[in-house]
Specification:
This is NCK associated protein 1 like. It contains 51 helices and six strands. By secondary structure, it is mainly alpha-helical. A hairpin with a 2-residue loop joins strand 1 and strand 2.
Length: 1115
């Protein structure tokens, strides 16, 4: 007994188990490093080292450093310091293995010498730590044997050490011997564990009651109503009755590793003990692969069979292995699939009840950890076998498209335990103080033998637990009961040795009470560690391909989409798998971002699907769709027969009519209340999502932004080939429908619709959005320039001042669109609302580019005919000279054509600018006052600044600041202001003397209906006034004076047109051209009717109006 106290078995088991895990991870890291060409040590890949590497591999461990062999090690000699430094960490890691092996040998021999008793149901922690140490040690040796370069790593270090220090490393001989011994690890391990067979077998056979009970098929789980709180409603508030509390949440995978590794090492008991055989075969039938560490697995059937084949008298065991393997291949997949199916429903029921009544987490905490442990085992089993699917008729059993649901409910249980940890603490503190302490005290009092050391420990248990109170929870005190648990492990070790005064196996009640008490103490201070123990899935980060496949399959299932957030939540705990002995271990953390991006994409897709359906329904209510209904009603009233070919469209609202609830129509499936459930699950699982992943909402908004940008552009329906495009009002209605749907969804989701819509629409006012895609501003600008205004320039479309729009010209060729449907006041207001001031500015800049192109061509024409124009300007009041000069002046129609194009563009721009008046209603008054204060004497820079402000607000200005800027930018260094001024004056002369030519055009007739001419020459009025004002402003000249000059020249040439009595053809549309002169004066802020009457008789204008209207009525 004194030896048991002195040996400190409990402490050594605890320390060695933790140390063993670290050493195991180091071996795994070295294996992964050496097998990866990107991470492999540099000296193993250098060509100069190839000879040394081959020589060390060949001669290891007896490497000769002298004589002829020295030439093979020359490369190491040159870089001995670098080699030694690079190989030091690997060499030290192998030394750690040797040191760990020595300590394990010593402890196992001590335990054998003490003849310790093992029973998982009695001394649970002692037995568990013992079996775990054996499995950890076996795993270390297996991983050591899998490192192909271990001899090279150790040999190179030792060579560099000898070359540097003149002697080998002291530990090298033993280390080299160990590496040679474990070339065939199973053979050596079984030799080592021969003396420990009795203790190992005893520990494993203690599982024969537990393991079969835990390894039942789903049918028996279901018939026993496992994990169901509703199976016994009357006992729902009672604590879970259990004699083996800790065994209930012990991992089945862990037990299988114990059994299969244990009986492989101590195989002699399989031939001598029938119970050992049955337990071993049951574990063999449960699966094909066991985890060694991380993603390293072992095909236990193959390894065991290969080893038993080399032994005499094991032919029956080999046959058993083959039979178990066939059984596992045939039945394992479907058995585990059924278990996962059962657990999904069981966990769902458990979560729903505990969410509704979180107070049940106190008495039913064991149920939670059992559910988590069972689920974790099934998830990891599937992960292990998904990487190594056997040849089977049902490979679908190794694929699970519903894994998301199981992971989701595991996460919900973890969340509930974390959220209501105070509830669990309060319950178990009361349980410990009011029940466990009293029961433990009574048990101790009834013990007939109680040595001093054990008595001290048990007395401390009672005193510590009796001091716990609920007030400590209320005051927020931190609990630390680890000392009690370690003392209980010590007591197990003391009372499990042979010939101990107090044998724990003689007092099963004490063991049961203490095991239960230990669980209760963990519920007070160690809930997170318990959650980690029972539900840790951090190993998934080492199976990225399998995990991604699970996510992909689940995301394809519509019913699973609401559970997808469980995947990134599982990723949040990948950092927990780190170990201090291997901090550099690489973990695949990119999965988290991948999952979040895909979930965000799916979330935005669902939201946009809802919006799209609502937009379609809203579109059916637009006035443009009621024409057929009105026509049908009219025909019915007039008793006309409806054409047979005409198919009656369904009226809005019919999509919601159902005769059978089982029939799910599109409108029902896309109803916000239905799809919002999915979105809520995706976005609002728990507040911790936002804490763990603060970028998730940014990702979701990112996808919504890009998705809505694409949707809006798609709703434009722009076809570059046919030049078809949606009307701005239709697009605006669609955008409003989308926005209304998003606002509806925002009632259920934490979605900032205002910011989202503003962000998207603001991007649409720019030429390109933030993703580099085209926007509606670009599309509509291109369409209005290339389709509407291009046809208006050819007079196929007419600018109609009376209706403030463009209309189609009546022609034989039918137009692809009706101009008035895209340019009336409603459409222009819709366009302005969609593209906003920034978009209108972009449109204006494009229009100005086209205007400056035409101005450039006009200047070229003026320069070509400068001499004639100078003479005409001097002799405009001499009819005879003008007649001769006009004959020498070509291209007058070209000048008028280009000026008409400029006028059409400016007219369209004015229509677009007019829609901005309602953009800032509260600022219109002050802006108008500023504009009205501007006078001819005001400084030109101030004038342009005020006009720019007024123009941006949609007000008309005497001088167009945008046109002024465009004209000013045309000027080059080669031309002076005087030259530009001269060209401008002559351009006005050119226009004025060319006006009579318009009378020859049959389409120059004035239309009262349109308020303009059929060939758009009435737009000359806008062009002449705005262009001349802009050009003279740039040149700092008097606008009014030069426009008067233009009026004089134009009046003179038009009066000469009236005097030409001989050629009546010239005067066919003379009256319409007279009206054009009147329009120029009316449209000008610088000319007046008095000025016009001084040079052109008013009686001619009056007669012209009369003749035009008379001709209109006669036609």
């Amino acid at each position: 007994m004194t030896m048991a106290y002195q040996q400190k078995l409990a402490e050594k088991l605890t320390i060695l188990n933790d140390r063993g895990v670290g050493v195991l991870l180091r071996m795994n890291y070295i294996k992964k490093t050496c097998s990866d060409s990107k991470l492999r040590p540099q000296f193993l890949m250098e060509k100069t080292m190839e000879a040394s590497v081959k020589y060390i591999n060949k001669k290891f461990p007896n490497i000769d450093f002298r004589g002829n062999s020295q030439q093979h090690l020359t490369s190491i000699q040159r870089q001995k310091s670098e080699v030694m430094m690079a190989m030091a960490s690997y060499y030290d890691s192998f030394l750690d293995v040797m040191e760990f092996r020595d300590h394990v040998y010593e402890l196992l021999n001590t335990i054998d010498a003490c003849q310790c008793f093992f029973n998982i149901a009695v001394n649970f922690d002692f037995t568990k730590n013992y079996l775990e140490l054996i499995v950890t040690y076996t795993s270390v040796i297996i991983m050591l044997s899998r490192i192909d370069d271990k001899k090279v790593l150790v040999g190179m270090y030792n060579c560099a050490h000898e070359m540097s220090n003149g002697s080998s490393d002291p530990a090298y001989p033993r280390l080299a011997q160990m590496l040679m011994e474990y070339e065939q690890p199973m053979k050596k391990l079984t030799e080592e564990f021969g003396p420990h067979t009795k203790a190992v077998t005893e520990a494993l056979l203690s599982l024969q009651m537990l393991y079969p009970r835990r390894n039942l098929p789903a049918e028996q789980w279901r018939s026993a109503q496992l994990l169901s709180l509703l199976s016994a409603p009357a006992a729902m508030l009672d604590p879970t009755p259990c004699d083996t509390t800790a065994c209930e949440y012990l991992s089945v995978e862990v037990m299988e590793r114990w059994i299969l590794f244990g009986f492989l090492l101590c195989h002699s008991s399989l031939n001598s003990n029938q119970s050992s055989q049955e337990l071993w075969k049951m574990a063999l039938r449960s699966g094909l692969y066991l985890t060694v560490v991380r993603d390293e697995t072992i095909n236990i059937h193959k390894v065991t069979e290969d080893y038993f084949d080399s032994l005499k008298g094991y032919s029956k065991r080999v046959a058993d292995i083959k039979e178990c393997r066939e059984h596992a291949i045939a039945n394992c997949g479907v058995m585990h699939r059924e278990r996962r199916s059962f657990l999904r429903h069981a966990l769902k029921e458990l979560v729903k009840i505990l969410e509704d009544e979180p107070g049940l987490l106190g008495p039913k905490a064991l149920f939670v950890f059992m559910a988590l442990s069972f689920s974790r085992d099934e998830v990891l089993w599937l992960v292990r076998h998904s990487e190594n699917i056997p040849k089977t008729k049902t490979p679908e059993d190794y694929v699970d498209s519903q894994m998301a649901e199981l992971l989701f409910y595991m996460e919900r249980l973890r969340t509930l335990m974390t959220k209501y940890d105070r509830v669990v603490q309060r319950y178990h503190i009361l349980y410990l103080a009011k029940f466990d302490t009293l029961l433990l005290n009574d048990t101790i009092q009834n013990m007939y033998v109680c040595p001093e050391e054990e008595s001290i420990l048990m007395t401390s248990f009672v005193s510590t637990l009796s001091e716990l109170t609920v007030n400590q929870v209320k005051n927020g005190e931190e609990f630390d009961l680890r000392a009690i648990r370690l003392d209980w492990l010590r007591l197990q070790a003391y009372t499990s040795v042979s010939k101990a005064p107090l044998m724990l196996k003689d007092y099963p009640d004490l063991a049961k009470i203490m095991n239960m008490t230990q669980f209760h103490t963990k519920m007070v201070d160690n809930i997170q560690e318990m959650l980690h123990e029972t539900s840790d899935l951090s190993i998934l980060c080492f199976y990225p391909r399998v995990f991604e496949k699970m996510f992909s399959l689940s995301s394809e299932e519509v019913s699973m989409q609401r559970y997808l957030m469980s995947f990134p939540l599982a990723c949040s705990r990948f950092s927990q798998c780190a170990h201090p002995l291997c901090p550099e271990e690489k973990r695949c953390l990119r999965l988290c971002v991948t999952f979040l991006e895909e979930i965000a994409r799916q979330t935005s897709s669902i939201i946009l699907d809802i919006c799209a359906e609502q937009s379609n329904l809203n579109d059916q209510l637009l006035p443009k769709h009621c024409g057929q209904t009105i026509s049908a009603a009219r025909n019915k009233k007039q008793k006309k027969q409806t054409p047979k070919k005409e198919v009656q469209k369904a009226k809005p609202g019919t999509e919601s009519q159902r005769k059978d609830r089982a029939i799910v129509t599109k409108s029902v499936s896309f109803h916000p209340c239905v799809l919002t459930q999915t979105v809520i699950s995706l976005l609002s699982i728990h507040l911790c999502i936002l804490i763990i992943y603060p970028t998730y909402l940014n990702l979701s908004t990112y996808h919504l932004d890009s998705g809505k940008n694409k949707v809006i552009v798609k709703m434009v329906h722009y076809n570059q080939t046919t030049q078809e495009i949606s009307r701005p009002s239709d697009l605006l209605a669609g955008v409003r429908a989308y926005t209304a749907s998003l606002h509806t969804l925002s009632r259920y989701l934490s979605l900032d619709v205002t910011r989202l819509v503003k962000n998207v629409l603001l991007q649409q006012t720019q030429p390109l959005d933030s993703y580099g895609g085209q926007t509606i501003t670009t599309l509509y600008t291109n369409w209005y320039l290339e389709s509407l205004l291009r046809q208006a320039s050819s007079a196929l479309i007419i600018h109609c001042p009376t209706m403030h729009c463009f209309v189609n010209q009546t022609s034989e060729n039918e137009q692809s669109f009706k101009a008035e449907e895209y340019s009336d006041i409603v459409e222009m207001q819709a366009l302005a609302e969609l593209i906003g001031p920034y978009g209108l500015k972009f449109l204006s800049e494009n229009l100005m580019w086209h205007i400056t192109s035409q101005v450039g061509e006009l200047k070229k024409l003026v320069i070509e005919n400068m001499d004639v124009l100078v003479q005409m300007r001097a002799n405009f009041d001499k009819p005879e000279a003008m007649v001769n000069l006009q004959k020498r002046l070509p291209a007058g129609d070209n000048v008028l054509k280009r000026m008409t194009i400029i006028g059409v563009i400016l007219s369209f721009r004015a229509m677009a600018q007019d829609t901005l008046e309602d953009h800032c209603p509260y600022l219109m008054g002050p802006i108008e006052s500023l504009r009205d204060l501007v006078s001819p004497d005001t400084d030109i820079k101030v004038t342009l600044s005020v006009f720019e402000l007024a123009s941006a607000a949609g007000l008309k200005c005497d001088i167009d600041p945008a046109l002024v800027a465009a004209i000013a930018n045309m000027r080059t260094d080669n031309t002076s202001i005087e030259e530009e001024y001269k060209l401008t004056c002559l351009l006005l002369v050119y226009i004025a003397v060319s006006l009579p030519m318009l009378a020859l055009d049959p389409s120059s007739c004035y239309s009262r209906e349109y308020g303009g001419h059929s060939n758009n020459i009435h737009c000359l009025a806008t062009a002449v006034n705005q262009l001349s004002a802009a050009m003279f402003t740039v040149q700092n000249k008097n606008i009014e004076q030069h426009l008067k000059e233009f009026l004089l020249v134009a009046s003179s040439t038009l009066l000469q047109l009236g005097q030409n009595v001989e050629n009546r053809v010239d005067s066919k549309n003379r009256d319409s051209i007279y009206l054009l002169l009147h329009m120029i004066v009316e449209a000008s802020p610088f000319l007046s009717q008095d000025m016009l009457e001084s040079c052109f008789p008013y009686v001619l204008l009056r007669n012209a109006y009369r003749e035009v209207y008379k001709a209109l009525y006669s036609s």
